[in-house]
Amino acid sequence: IPILIYEAIQIDVWKHKVFPLLIEMNAEPKNTFMLFIIFYHEDIAISLLENVLFHSESAETMNDSVLDLVDYAVKYASFLFDAPDIEIYENVTNPNSCLEEIFEKKKEIEFDISMRCISILRYLAEFADNLPLSVLSRLLSTHDVPYLLVQLIEKQPWKKENTEGENMIYNGSWKKVKPSEEGKICKIEGQVWFGLRELLLNSKSAPYYEVTEHRLSQLIKVL
């Protein structure tokens, strides 16, 4: 698990430090395959983490890298507040532009990673009792994850309308909502609610999370 965390963070740093330099050096790359492979590698690493962290035994094998995972997951979950700027379809303005295609794929992959990070935060909250106390401190004192989750519930970035006005929901990909599923809580939204419950009802959370008037006013919004 620490290796997967390291791989994901390493690629995230590469995207912010190296990728812009590559674009400056070669504004219109002729071959996008290698760039796609790097982007997908991060998505695959996070997908594997999401699956293995479903089991508490896996969560317990993490060392200090779990704090890095918390920071990473919070960062990507926060990206969802800019979800309207993320294209949900493969609409490339200029089909002949490799650069345009790269940026579109990058946005799609980062959106998927952000959604998976919601599940990761939920699992970390659920298994917090089996992790170092510093994890709870990071989730509550440093990042105020309950507030983050409340904001996500309000915004619901996992729901969209397509160009025809039909409701769509994200579960690994965007799909039309069946009439029989209208009004139901989807998988990702359920993860948010579970994560919020685990953090607020954990008896060990009290020393790290003071329920101020501002926090209370935000939490009440979802009741």
Written overview of the protein:
It is built from 10 helices and 3 strands, in the order ααααααααβββαα. It is mainly alpha-helical and 223 residues long. The protein has one domain (1-220). One of its GO terms (cellular component) is centriolar satellite. It comes from Habropoda laboriosa.
Per DSSP E runs of 2 or more residues, the count of β-strands stands at: 3
**Shape label:** globular
Mean model confidence by pLDDT:
88
Order of neighbouring strands in the sheet with most strands: 1-2-3
First-residue to last-residue Cα separation: 36 Å
Low-pLDDT ranges? 84-92
Question: Share of helix among residues?
Answer: 55-70%
Q: Specify Rg, calculated over alpha carbons.
A: 19 Å
Order of helices and strands: HHHHHHHHEEEHH
Strand content: under 5%
Our count of domains comes out at 1
Briefly note the structural class of the backbone. mainly alpha
What count of helical segments does DSSP give? 10
Largest sheet: 3 strands, antiparallel
Features:
223 residues, mainly alpha, three-stranded antiparallel β-sheet, 61% helix, globular
Fold topology:
Layout: H1 2-17, H2 19-25, H3 33-52, H4 56-59, H5 65-79, H6 98-126, H7 133-142, H8 145-155, E1 159-161, E2 167-170, E3 174-176, H9 187-201, H10 213-220
Antiparallel strand pairs: 1-2, 2-3
Helix pairs in contact: 1-3, 1-5, 3-6, 5-6, 5-7, 6-9, 8-9
How would you summarize what this structure contains?
By secondary structure, this protein is mainly α. It has helices spanning 2-17, 19-25, 33-52, 56-59, 65-79, 98-126, 133-142, 145-155, 187-201, 213-220, and strands at residues 159-161, 167-170, 174-176. A hairpin with a 3-residue loop joins strand 2 and strand 3.
